[in-house]
TrEMBL record, chains A, B:
GO biological process: allantoin catabolic process; purine nucleobase metabolic process
Keywords, comma-separated and alphabetical: Lyase, Purine metabolism
Gene Ontology MF term list: ureidoglycolate hydrolase activity; ureidoglycolate lyase activity
Catalytic activity: (S)-ureidoglycolate = urea + glyoxylate
InterPro entries: RmlC_Cupin_sf, UAH_cupin, Ureidogly_lyase, Ureidoglycolate_lyase_dom_sf
Protein name listed in UniProt: Ureidoglycolate lyase
Pfam family, one: Ureidogly_lyase
Quaternary structure (record): Homodimer.
Origin superkingdom: Bacteria
Amino acid sequence: MTSTITAQDLTPEAFAPFGEVLDASGTAEKFINQGRCARHHDRAKLDFTDGQAGISLFKSELAEMPYRLELLERHPLGSQAFIPMSQSRFLVTVAPDAGGVPGAVQAFIARAGQGVNLHRNVWHGVLCPLDGAGLYAVVDRIGAGSNLEEHWFDAPMTVTD
Amino acid sequence: MTSTITAQDLTPEAFAPFGEVLDASGTAEKFINQGRCARHHDRAKLDFTDGQAGISLFKSELAEMPYRLELLERHPLGSQAFIPMSQSRFLVTVAPDAGGVPGAVQAFIARAGQGVNLHRNVWHGVLCPLDGAGLYAVVDRIGAGSNLEEHWFDAPMTVTD
C-alpha cells in the first residue's frame, strides 16, 4: 500500500525544524532607498563546514501533483537555499533524521513569493516547481568533497495537496 | 542641461567590468534530479572583506522610465547580488571608479530571468524594478561596520530605454 502525505501551507513555524522560509512577511528591519524599499535582513542561517557560499542557477522541469516521492537526499557539508525566480509555487518535502535514514516525511507547498533555506544535513526531496518558470537561484556550498547522500524508499509515497 | 544615458541590454560581456549576470544561459555544468534539472554552477564572485554571506529579502516600489538618476552608492566591504523573485525587468546603473567618485555611468536593463552580482565596491544605483513584484533576494555581506558610501550628482541624469 502506498502511503499518502498531505502537503501543508509553508509557514515559518511549521518549517522551523528544517530551515527558514524566505519571504518578505512581517516587519522589515529597515527601509532603504529613501523609504522606497523594505529590507528584510539576514533571513537564512547559512552554514558550511568548509568551502564557501556560492550562487548557482537551477532550471528544472515542472512536477505534478499528486507527486510520487521516491527519494530524499541531504547535504552533510552545507545548507542550501532555493529562491524561485518567478512568482510560483513549489513542493518542499523534508524529514527529520532517524538514525541515518529519513524519519516521518512532511510536505509543504511554498506559495508565490516564498523561498526556503534548508539547514545543513536536512533530508529533503529534489526541486519540485509546480508552476512558473522552473528557474531558481540556489545558495549553497561551493567546495571540494562529496556533499550528497541519497535515500531511496522501498515503497514510493504519494504527496497530495 | 541634463545628460541622458541610454540603457543597453544586459549581457555578461558588457557587464563584466562590474559583476556577473545571473541567468540560466549557456551550457549547464551538470544535470541533476535524474536529468530533470540543469545546474548552472557557481555563477557569482562572492567577495567579503570580513563578515559572511547572508540572504535578505528586498521589497521595492517600482521605478519608471525615463529614470531620474541622482545617486550612486557602493559597498566597500562586500559584493551584492540581486535576484528577482518574479519574471520581470529591472534597471541596473553602474560606473567605474574615477578617483573616489563615479566615472562615466552605464545603464543596463535586466530582462526576465536575469539577476546580477555586483562586485565589491562597484558604484551602482539603488534597486529599480521596472515591472513585476518588486521582490528580490539579496545576497550580500552580513557584518559589523559601515559598508555604504553614497555619491549624489550635482545634476541628475536621465536614463532612457
